[in-house]
Amino acid sequence: MDETAQATLTKHEQILHHIESLQVGSRISVRKISKYLDVSEGTAYRAIKEAENQGLVSTKERIGTVRVEKKLRQNIDKLTFAEVVNMVDGIVLGGARGLHKTLHKFVIGAMEQDAMMRYIEAGSLLIVGNRNEAHHGALEQGAGVLITGGFNTSEGVKKLADERELPIISSSYDTFTVASMINRAIYDRLIKKKILLVEDILASGTVLYYLKLSSTLKDWQRLLEETGHSRFPVVDDWNRVVGVVTSKDMVGANPEHSMEKLMTRNPLTASAQTSVASAAHMMVWEGIELLPVVDSSRKLLGILSRQEVLKAMQYIQKQPQNGETFEDLIWSGMGEIRDEQGNLTFRGSITPQMTNHFGTVSEGVLTTLMTQAAYRVVKDYKKGDFVMDNMSNYFLRPVQIDSQIEIRPTIIEISRKFGKIDVEIFHSGAMVSKAMLTVQVIDPS
Fold first, then answer.
1. 20 to 30 Å CA-CA from 159: which of 25, 29, 50, 333?
2. Which burial class, exposed, middle or buried, applies to 318 when counting CB atoms under 10 A from its CB (0-12, 13-18, 19+)?
């Protein structure tokens, strides 16, 4: 019996393979797929929806569902001109054929023509008002144009945009508003890009070791000797994960019993879109060494080891910060101070963005500050990360806007797996907030 043999393709998988084989731009319909592959329209519909989730097809207004080029996750930080049009409620005045192109930066045209041209390069977007010369100059240098204030442009500029296949867009919003919208979108994408997903670390082309429902103790022992692992997913005839077996399940097992009788049903799994941090949390929390990765129909895609997850966590720690989350913004004003004994303290001021409608710092912000202080002191001590088990907060007195605060985190106890941290916040020498955190440590060493 060959545990690594591919199961017969289901009708759902046949449809996905067929869609993937189609040329980019091909129109796809439930009825055509149903008739061509002799499947029910319900099966065809579900498979087309799955293909849309995978980025193989896209449904466009007045066109229908078409096969598209699958976008790589590496380009997630790139905005297309088409997305900018939707974002700013724009009208395309010319260069519609270039809407699929991406832009890597934008330039605000609030300067003289000669100075402006020095900042414009191919692949950028010029945001400017009704200045036809600037529109023409940007297109000549390979940049798209976004005209604010709802203005139009000359026929010559429109013709040049069509020739260069570079969009020229008009929006009724002002320059500051559209620049803020685009800047926010770029930051959001940078944040998403830095979040490492399971699909980013899942090794492709490797042999998957698993057992079938009909496999026996001998099959498990053979895989144990071959891989050195004792935990394996169990799949059915359609390669769907239905259970998992470990060495504990094999203790005292009848050699003739199949995996169907020995396995633990409904095992923990991850999807390709699960973040590595979530997978690490799951594996640390449950104390497991291997985690099956499945698609939406629970078909086995790969197997993630604890070693791979922790190695990825090490990689994340070494990467530069890209984009700003709310936590980054809240923490950005805190300065780090280390005393003679090496203890960490953080100092900063309460900014307007941290306050509630009363003008005092919100409880949520204080919680974030104490969590971030705990995170940094653990990282400083263990060179690792943690996931929180429990946090008890005490808010003793309000802190108003522009107040200077001091955050003092103290490690009460910490081991390889668990930790307890006390965090106190002071203002003018008086304690204003306190928290006790218990955490599980993710040690990448």
1. 25
2. exposed
* 3 state DSSP class of 41: helix
Distance CA 202, CA 294 (A): 11
pLDDT band, very low/low/confident/very high, at 111 (cuts 50, 70, 90): confident
Cα separation, 196 vs 217, whole angstroms:
37
The residue with greater pLDDT, 416 or 98, is 98
Q: Is pLDDT at 84 greater than 80 in this prediction?
A: yes
Residue 140 CA to residue 124 CA, distance in Å, equals 12
Answer left, alpha or beta for residue 334, where phi above 0 means left and psi between -120 and 50 means alpha: beta
Q: Which residue has the tokens 């965090």?
A: 423
Tens of pLDDT along 256-304?
889 988 898 888 899 888 888 788 878 877 778 889 999 888 899 888 8
Gap between the Cα atoms of 397 and 394, Å rounded: 9
Q: What is the pLDDT of residue 257?
A: 87
Above 60 in pLDDT, residue 240?
yes
| Residue 202 to residue 166: CA distance in whole angstroms | 38
Task: Give whole-number Cα distances, 433 to 326, 344, 401, 409, in Å.
Answer: 20, 17, 16, 12
Name residue, tokens 């869609």: 19
pTM (2 d.p.): 0.49
By DSSP bridging, strand 91-94 and strand 79-80 are unpaired
Tell me how far CA of residue 434 lies from CA of 52, 62, 366, 388, in angstroms.
48, 58, 9, 16
What is the pLDDT at residue 191?
59
pLDDT band for position 5 (cuts 50, 70, 90): very low
pLDDT confidence of residue 76: 44
Q: 411 near 421, Cβ under 8 Å?
A: yes
| 409 vs 424: CA distance, rounded Å | 6
- The domains located in the chain, with CATH, are 11-67 (1.10.10.10), 75-194 (3.40.1390.20), 199-316 (3.10.580.10), 326-442 (3.10.129.10)
**CA 125, CA 285: separation in Å to the nearest integer?**
47
291-305, 370-384, 419-433 — which is least confidently predicted? 370-384
Residue with tokens 């790139």: 78
280-287 long-range contacts, CB within 8 A, separation 24+: 280/309, 280/310, 280/313, 280/385, 280/387, 280/442, 281/387, 281/440, 281/442, 283/309, 284/387, 284/417, 284/440, 284/442, 285/387, 285/440
DSSP class of 361: B
